[in-house]
Write a structure and sequence with these properties.
- By secondary structure, the protein is mostly helical.
- The chain has one domain.
- 87% of the residues lie in helices and 0% in strands.
- The chain has 4 helices and no strands.
- The longest helix is centred in the first third of the chain and has 37 residues.
- The two termini are 30 Å apart.
- The model has no long low-confidence stretch (mean pLDDT 87).
Amino acid sequence: MDKTIKILYTKYGEAFRYLVVGGLTTLINIVIFFSLTHIAIPWFWANVVAWFLSVLFAFIANKKVVFGSTDMAPSVVFKEGISFFALRGASLLADTAILFVGLTLMHGSPIVVKLIDQIVVIGLNYVFSKHIFS
């Protein structure tokens, strides 16, 4: 059994780590978003703050845990950080569009819309992260 688990982890470890980090990133995003909207911050600004803080977490966790990037030279970290945030900015646009349509135009349930939004964003972010760190 241990050998099977080791083989599976070797084959799918990166995807598993990405899912764990993605889950934590999503949880951070959702908690911050709903905490801020709960204190009457408009959904747009709550989403921008939640995005920034969750992307900061995701950058660090993806670099170290998921993709095992060990180059910590300031110029490399800066370049990766700019790329990471820029590509995640593209997912922020999708994120904002989904929230706008779901919340403003369709008057959907905030939790349902945010969860759908995060599923789409996770997929986009995996593609972007793989491009940066691989």
